[in-house]
């Protein structure tokens, strides 16, 4: 009789541990799988995985992944700022080119400000607001490009701007996906997100190839 009771107790404990272990596995998504899935619908999935995965530590987190990609975009914008500063100081830079670069210098300052605002909102786990804040990056970038029409920007600046465009596209794709997820979760609770405090609408220049004016 004691043997039967002990056997039943062992089976019960084993079943309990198996159930909770299975639930734990379901709750904790492996980092590589999570990042790959998150990046699958972005502008450049391979670049998205390559820039996020090495910086993702301590388990997969969608908002942390988005913040990492925003920081990558910020670093790219800072590279463009450094290129602009160097070009302006160059003795071979014409006055007309300096005037155009000065406009870009101002626009990239606005880009950095918008990115910093996006970082703040993603840290607040508000992907909808992050998407709105970051969308301004494309408008400012386009204004810089327009300054060189009908000429083209210096090659090194053009390359930096194009890299920012691709990474920025990844940011907007991820943030939009998270925004949709937030909306679904709020709808289940009978709520809706409130963006009434947003002062700047999304840019119509998102993902536009070439010049675009607001």
From TrEMBL:
<dbReference type="Pfam" id="PF04043">
    <property type="entry name" value="PMEI"/>
</dbReference>
<feature type="domain" description="Pectinesterase inhibitor">
    <location>
        <begin position="30"/>
        <end position="174"/>
    </location>
</feature>
<feature type="signal peptide">
    <location>
        <begin position="1"/>
        <end position="24"/>
    </location>
</feature>
<dbReference type="InterPro" id="IPR035513">
    <property type="entry name" value="Invertase/methylesterase_inhib"/>
</dbReference>
<keyword id="KW-0732">Signal</keyword>
<dbReference type="InterPro" id="IPR052421">
    <property type="entry name" value="PCW_Enzyme_Inhibitor"/>
</dbReference>
<dbReference type="GO" id="GO:0004857">
    <property type="term" value="F:enzyme inhibitor activity"/>
</dbReference>
<comment type="similarity">
    <text>Belongs to the PMEI family.</text>
</comment>
<keyword id="KW-1015">Disulfide bond</keyword>
<protein>
    <recommendedName>
        <fullName>Pectinesterase inhibitor domain-containing protein</fullName>
    </recommendedName>
</protein>
<dbReference type="InterPro" id="IPR006501">
    <property type="entry name" value="Pectinesterase_inhib_dom"/>
</dbReference>
